[in-house]
């Protein structure tokens, strides 16, 4: 940072209340006389209104005038910009998480283009605080010394004219080249900045590309100017596309080749054609054509929303002509995301009043939420997830706890960051510690040479999903508690703690409260995990079975190219069954049926798995598997809850259907082999005619590990 050593009284006109002097900074190579000279020039220009009237120059002149007259700043001041505290920077970055999420990849790319030429790339928030920085490693010190670093604060009222300050004032891009800066401290900088406007039309940030001691003239910045404007537009478009996922979005370009790569125009509208949002290019083009920009697509294209949607059906691209001006475009229409439509709650629903803005509600297009209980849970989870409230999901096996957790992650601000899922029951106790916490180089014999980054650290910045948390051993619970309390972890064999920042979602089918009272689950951890608790209903209680069936049939069709329909008889079988394996079992059953029915295209009852087939005239209330598990009657039901009893029954059925081959059963159930072994041990499911599990003892560390590895390889 620039350090002021000395002060000398200047002779130029100074703001009346300031007993100013020119501080000179030898480290920055700036002399006192230079600062004085600059200050005189600024004063004289403002006093004599002698700036050129070119648009940008006029903006600079206005900014100089405000800096000198309104804010009473000293143009001869050579000290650096105000630096905000680390805590304030963190807070600002948190508040601008959405902006950073969309700007980060673009900033990275832009830096890849301009970095080697000596430019750094910065993002300022809407108040002018620099919250993101990319610069060449070997120039960092220099950038920092001149205020081009995160944590610096560039507002016009404090630092006078600068690229960021001008954009904040006028919401227009600008290049502020060397002596265009108001304060002498910044005249060695060349800054080109552009606004980043949110889909709601508000200024949310500023993208800035700057260099120190750029020897080129101002015209040389034209290319940088074009890049910065284009990059800012890319950020805005990404923001808009994310924000309007619940709407129809038209992508338009004059050339069909560029339509997918880089659409010129983006217009988002609802089912009635009301335009909810458009990108900057659309806005500027339409404002040239209309005095007031039309509010419905019908006025733009002479086609109502329904006709535009019809044009799109079955076509990847279609032509569209603007009514006014007659420009022709190639168009693509993105339909609203399904999840958003299914999770919108009816007015009067307890969660409806608190609905977040639509963009936040985009949870996933991979989760069926037609059941009101599921949709209400999802809406609430999305409302709290960005507030660092840990979520606990409860529900029987296969009810979609992991799918739900993933949807919540995808609808959170952390969506671009990793989602890391760990099944605490599937990893042997002896391995789970290193899996979760990682270990340092050479931590123990057999450790990987370079150490291992544990799952918790892999989830840094994103979401960690701990499935079957009730199966975590007490010592590990203690370690996890420490991580959650301190936001730090120490990998095995390391002495250094590492900071971690995660959203935590846990799941269990166990009764954690009961485990706490029995002393098998730590009470303090229980309260840490249960910021919000959602119980996912079993499939037999869900009202959206039909939607789930459609969803899985569509999924199969997409994977295999042929769409199968369900006969009424087959659907009746599906409706009658109790689904102990829940949504997972339904998915696998439909996959099986689609494979058998592939040729004829209609799934009949005979195509369904044995356990599902039931004659229409003898619909059983309880499952009557074609191949009943030999050992079912040997189960000890003591201590198992209804959901667990069903799961036990389901796994036993599936094992019997698959001739007790664990690998195939695991595949059919969509579980890992290690999980099947665990569940067999837990529920006391034994191989027919045997007192132990099939094959070698499955729960030995090596076998379960080998199975887990094999599952990963599968
Ligand atoms: N609402 C849903 N919409 C679409 N697919 C779903 C839904 N719920 C579950 N699934 C699918 O069902 C399968 C099982 O779901 P998932 O693994 O999330 O269940 P789970 O409750 O976590 O199971 P477990 O308790 O055994 O860990 C997955 O393939 C998942 O994608």
UniProtKB/TrEMBL annotation:
It comes from the Bacteria. It holds the Pfam family AAA_lid_14. One of its GO terms (molecular function) is ATP binding. Residues 692-714 are annotated as: Disordered. Keywords: ATP-binding, DNA-binding, Nucleotide-binding, Transcription, Transcription regulation. GO terms for biological process: regulation of DNA-templated transcription. PROSITE patterns: SIGMA54_INTERACT_1 (PS00675), SIGMA54_INTERACT_2 (PS00676), SIGMA54_INTERACT_4 (PS50045). InterPro entries: AAA+_ATPase, AAA_lid_NorR, GAF, GAF-like_dom_sf, Homeodomain-like_sf, HTH_Fis, P-loop_NTPase, Sigma_54_int. Residues 367-595 form the Sigma-54 factor interaction domain. This is Transcriptional activator of acetoin dehydrogenase operon AcoR.
């Amino acid at each position: 940072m620039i350090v002021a050593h000395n002060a000398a009284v200047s002779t130029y006109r100074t703001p009346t209340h300031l007993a100013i002097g020119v501080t000179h900074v030898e480290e920055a190579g700036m002399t006192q006389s230079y600062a004085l000279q600059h200050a005189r020039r600024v004063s004289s220009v403002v006093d004599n209104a002698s700036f050129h009237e070119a648009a940008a120059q006029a903006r600079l002149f206005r900014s100089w005038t405000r800096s000198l007259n309104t804010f009473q700043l000293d143009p001869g001041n050579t000290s650096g910009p105000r630096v905000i505290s680390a805590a304030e920077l963190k807070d600002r970055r948190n508040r601008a998480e959405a902006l950073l999420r969309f700007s980060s990849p673009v900033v990275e790319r832009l830096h890849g283009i301009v970095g080697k030429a000596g430019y750094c790339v910065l993002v300022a928030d809407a108040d002018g605080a620099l919250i993101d920085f990319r610069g060449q490693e070997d120039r960092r010190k220099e950038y920092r010394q001149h205020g081009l670093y995160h944590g610096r604060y560039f507002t016009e009222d404090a630092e006078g004219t600068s690229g960021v300050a001008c954009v904040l004032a006028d919401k227009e891009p600008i290049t502020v080249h060397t002596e265009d800066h108001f304060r002498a401290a910044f005249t060695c900088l060349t800054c080109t900045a552009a606004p980043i406007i949110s889909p709601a039309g508000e200024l949310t940030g500023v993208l800035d590309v700057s260099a120190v001691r750029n020897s080129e003239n101002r015209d040389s910045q034209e290319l940088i100017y074009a890049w910065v404007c284009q990059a800012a537009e890319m950020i805005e478009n990404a923001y808009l596309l994310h924000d309007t996922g619940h709407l129809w979005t038209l992508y338009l370009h004059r050339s069909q080749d560029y339509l997918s790569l880089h659409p010129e125009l983006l217009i988002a509208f609802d089912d009635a054609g009301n335009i909810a949002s458009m990108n900057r290019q659309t806005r500027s083009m339409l404002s040239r054509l209309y005095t007031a920009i039309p509010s419905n697509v019908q006025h733009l294209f002479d086609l109502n929303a329904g006709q535009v949607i019809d044009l799109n059906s079955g076509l990847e691209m279609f032509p569209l002509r603007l009514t006014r001006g007659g420009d022709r475009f190639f168009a693509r229409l993105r339909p609203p995301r399904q999840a958003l439509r299914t999770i919108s709650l009816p007015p009067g629903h307890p969660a409806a009043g608190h609905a977040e803005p639509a963009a936040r509600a985009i949870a996933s297009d991979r989760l069926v939420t037609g059941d009101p209980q599921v949709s209400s849970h999802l809406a609430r989870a999305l409302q709290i997830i960005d507030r660092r409230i840990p979520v606990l999901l409860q529900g029987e096996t296969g009810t979609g706890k992991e799918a739900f957790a993933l949807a919540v992650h995808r609808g959170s601000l952390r969506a671009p960051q990793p989602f890391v899922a760990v099944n605490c029951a599937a990893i042997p106790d002896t391995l789970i510690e290193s899996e979760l916490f990682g270990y340092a180089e050479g931590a123990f014999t057999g450790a990987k040479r370079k150490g291992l980054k544990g799952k918790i650290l892999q989830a840094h910045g994103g979401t960690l999903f701990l499935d079957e948390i009730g199966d975590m051993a007490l010592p590990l619970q203690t370690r996890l508690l420490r991580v959650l309390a301190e936001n730090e972890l120490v990998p095995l064999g390391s002495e250094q703690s590492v900071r971690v920042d995660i959203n935590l979602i846990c799941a269990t089918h166990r009764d954690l409260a009961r485990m706490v009272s029995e002393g098998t689950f730590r009470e303090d951890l229980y309260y840490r995990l249960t910021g919000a608790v959602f119980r996912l209903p079993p499939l037999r209680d869900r009202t959206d079975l039909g939607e789930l069936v459609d969803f899985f049939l569509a999924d199969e069709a997409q994977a295999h190219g042929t769409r199968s329909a369900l006969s009424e008889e087959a659907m009746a079988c599906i409706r009658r069954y109790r689904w102990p394996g829940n949504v997972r079992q339904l998915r696998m059953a439909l996959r099986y049926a689609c494979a058998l029915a592939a040729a004829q295209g209609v799934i009949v009852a005979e195509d369904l798995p044995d356990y599902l087939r039931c004659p229409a005239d003898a619909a059983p209330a309880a499952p009557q598997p074609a191949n009943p598990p030999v050992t079912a009657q040997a189960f000890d039901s003591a201590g198992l809850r209804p959901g667990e009893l069903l799961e036990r029954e389901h796994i036993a059925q599936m094992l019997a259907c698959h001739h007790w081959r664990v690998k195939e059963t695991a595949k059919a159930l969509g579980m890992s082999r290690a999980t099947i072994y665990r569940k067999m041990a837990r529920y006391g499911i034994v191989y027919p005619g045997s007192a132990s599990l099939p094959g070698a003892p499955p729960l030995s560390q090596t076998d379960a590990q080998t199975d887990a590895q094999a599952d990963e390889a599968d």
